[in-house]
Specification:
Length: 59
């Protein structure tokens, strides 16, 4: 299986480097609440709560 996170840096509010770091830290700590099974997916939001991407578990 693979964990795939796709973030469109052109969509993030503010500094893209800071927003990417924030998203990675958030999901690193939050994954414990999800079943890491094929098909699991979730939206990734920036600090302005705008959807900027997704992560998913794939085969």
């Amino acid at each position: 299986m693979r964990f795939v996170m796709d973030i469109d840096l052109d969509l993030v509010a503010g500094d893209a480097t800071e927003e990417l770091g924030r998203a990675l830290r958030y999901w690193a700590g939050n994954l414990k609440h999800y079943e890491l099974a094929e098909g699991t997916t979730e939206a990734v939001m920036d600090s302005a709560y705008t959807a900027v991407g997704t992560w998913e578990i794939t085969r």
